[in-house]
TrEMBL record:
This is Transcriptional regulator. Pfam families: HxlR. The keyword Transcription regulation applies. SUPFAM superfamilies: Winged helix' DNA-binding domain. One of its GO terms (molecular function) is DNA binding. Residues 1-82 form the HTH hxlR-type domain. Keywords: DNA-binding, Transcription, Transcription regulation.
Amino acid sequence: MFPAPSTPIRMMTSRSITVGRDARQSVPHHPVRLEQNGLVVRRRYAEAPPRVEYELTGPGRGLIEPLSALGRWTERYADEVLDAREGAVSGR
């Protein structure tokens, strides 16, 4: 799910994810905010084409397990949550 904590990565501006059955959405990445909050370190390279890498800091690495747990919870319960939401909306 995540790269190794000490492996620098190149971040895309957005990507599609699937939550539950059919819910597709574009999730923007905000590396500047992550950097401002001390979760990643940004490295620029003077190359053509330009290259920027981000690496997790200690606090960023500390989020891996809780976010992994949230991902596992989502995989397990997303369908139930979506069913409940659909039932609540259709019952209005």
